[in-house]
Design brief:
Blueprint (H helix, E strand, L loop, with lengths): L1 H13 L2 H50 L6 E4 L10 E6 L16 H7 L6 E7 L2 E9 L4 E8 L1 H36 L1 H16 L18 H49 L6 H29 L9 E4 H15 L5 E5 L7 E4 L1 H18 L6 E8 L14 E7 L32 H11 L2 E7 L5 E7 L12
Parallel strand pairs: 7-9
Antiparallel strand pairs: 1-2, 2-5, 3-4, 4-5, 6-8, 9-10, 10-12, 11-12
Helix pairs in contact: 2-4, 6-7, 8-9, 9-10
Length: 486
């Protein structure tokens, strides 16, 4: 049995899904067809025999009524012909009382038992005159039994004809089941075939713009395979967006790296001929080379950070946002000594914590502070405020409460033009006013990426009275379990 099971499992592994589905559907329909035909055969056979037994019962009743008081004898013997009445004979329980003439129908021990009242009436099949007979043996009274027989070959012929007809119907049903199974597998797996073809085309062309054509209809009424195809289309859309984003990143990075790398090569070639330069020229070239190296290093580091978009978050810990803000503000004061940094922590926000990675959150705030200081005129402050707000439920705003946190960074510079607001978080985007300032255009893109990885949202806008205002909002819940670092 285990060998047959292993053979069946090996066959299933070597056959495509369409063949297995066709075989399964065909087998199910064929089994039903064969079962119905078999049941119909037994019903027809039973009904034909039942009708013959009813005829024997009626004949026995008529003989009993017409021959009351008669002794053992053959009452009628014409049953060898189809149109003749039933053969009938009266048999005593004692063989000594048998008539001199031989009986027409066979007399066995069960017949004597019925005559003696020791056995119930019964039907049996016998052969006489070279023909099959159906015989009823029933009590006749006073120690006698009555045997009545009719030819059974018409019934047997009808049973054989029914068997042949139903076998033909069953065979046609099996053939039809095979055709239906093939049609069902072909129709049912058509979306899967299209999905497979699309996947193979994408693998061959490496182009995720292909889509699977879906049948019309509302989404709520789609079957499982159609929903699978729709999900595959959604995955292809996400893949296309990811590939496009990667291509834009590579293109933008190559464009941004071209200028500083050219400058580095020029200064390096200039320093290689240092014997022809004056000390002042060598110093300027060396300084330009160092600044170029730092710029390229910063740009490469930013690109590496952006390329980590699909990496899982490191081990999270409960981070006190106020402490991160105090640390980054203190660092910013050393980097931008001409810019005052003012930090205000509201009531209920000093002890508020959120799950996250301290180094990544510090990088987010550092980017915002550097951006604000870069656009602030010397001596004008950069204002940082951390506050808690109520997001529903009692006790919001306290440590560990269900309230949200909001951190704002405001500068007093020229602000963000309305036409630039939708693009300030795009990679390598730099407004007209910022083209002459140092930077790669990646800081704000990285900041928003880190914010979203921690379940927060970073927005930009114009501050009241002038300047730019960046708002970092932490909801009541931490980042979702499936978050990814950016």
């Amino acid at each position: 049995m285990s060998g047959v099971r292993r053979l069946g499992a090996r066959w299933r592994r070597r056959r495509p899904l369409r063949t297995r589905l066709a075989v399964a559907a065909s087998a199910a329909v064929a089994l039903v067809a064969v079962g119905v035909c078999a049941a119909a055969f037994f019903v027809i056979r039973y009904e034909l025999l039942h009708q013959l037994d009813l005829s024997l019962t009626q004949s026995a009743t008529r003989v009993i009524q017409e021959n009351r008081g008669e002794g053992p004898q053959t009452v009628a013997g014409e049953c060898r012909y189809l149109s003749a009445p039933a053969c009938a004979q009266i048999v005593p329980a004692d063989p000594a009382a048998d008539p001199d003439a031989a009986y027409l129908l066979p007399v066995a021990t069960p017949v004597r038992e019925v005559a003696a009242g020791q056995r119930a009436p019964y039907y049996s099949n016998v052969s006489r005159f070279g023909q099959p007979l159906r015989m009823l043996t029933t009590p006749f009274g006073d120690g006698r039994a009555l045997q009545v027989a009719l030819r059974a070959d018409p019934v047997e012929k009808g049973v054989r004809q029914a068997a042949v007809l139903l076998a033909a119907v069953g065979g046609a049903g099996v053939l039809l089941a095979g055709l239906l199974g093939y049609a069902v597998s072909r129709t049912g797996l058509a979306p899967v075939a299209r999905l497979t073809s699309t996947a193979e085309r994408i693998a061959a062309t490496r182009d995720p713009r292909h889509r699977i054509e879906l049948p019309p209809g509302p989404p709520g009424r789609q079957d499982e395979v159609t929903r699978l195809a729709a999900s595959f289309n959604t995955m292809l859309g996400e893949l296309e967006q990811s590939v496009s984003s990667q291509r834009r990143l590579v293109a933008d990075a190559s464009h941004e790296l071209r200028t500083p790398l050219t400058a580095l090569r020029t200064n390096a070639e200039l320093l290689a001929r240092g014997d022809r330069l004056t000390p002042a020229q060598r110093e300027r070239a060396s300084g330009a080379l160092g600044r170029g190296i730092r710029e390229v290093t910063g740009l490469v580091n930013d690109l590496i950070e952006l390329a980590r978009d699909e990496e899982p978050l490191p081990l999270l810990e409960e981070v006190r946002i106020a402490e991160v803000a105090e640390h980054t503000v203190a660092v910013a004061r050393t980097h931008w000594p001409q810019t005052p940094f003012l930090l205000e922590v509201g009531a209920g926000a000093a002890e508020a914590v959120r799950p996250g990675v301290p180094a990544r959150l510090a990088r987010l705030l550092t980017n915002l502070l550097d951006n604000a200081a870069k656009f602030s005129p010397p001596g004008t402050p950069v204002e940082v405020a951390l506050s808690a707000y109520r997001s529903g439920g009692e006790g919001s705003g306290g440590p560990g409460s269900s309230g949200g946190l909001e951190l704002t960074v405001r500068d007093h510079g020229p602000g963000i033009p309305a036409e630039d607001v939708p693009y300030v978080f795009d990679r390598f985007y730099r407004a007209e006013a910022a083209r002459a300032l140092p930077g790669s255009g990646l800081g704000l893109a990285m900041a928003r990426q880190i914010a979203r990885a921690h379940g927060a949202e970073l927005t930009a806008g114009a501050a009241p009275g002038g300047g730019a205002l960046f708002t970092l909002t932490f909801g009541a819940q931490g980042p979702p379990g499936g978050s990814h670092a950016s």
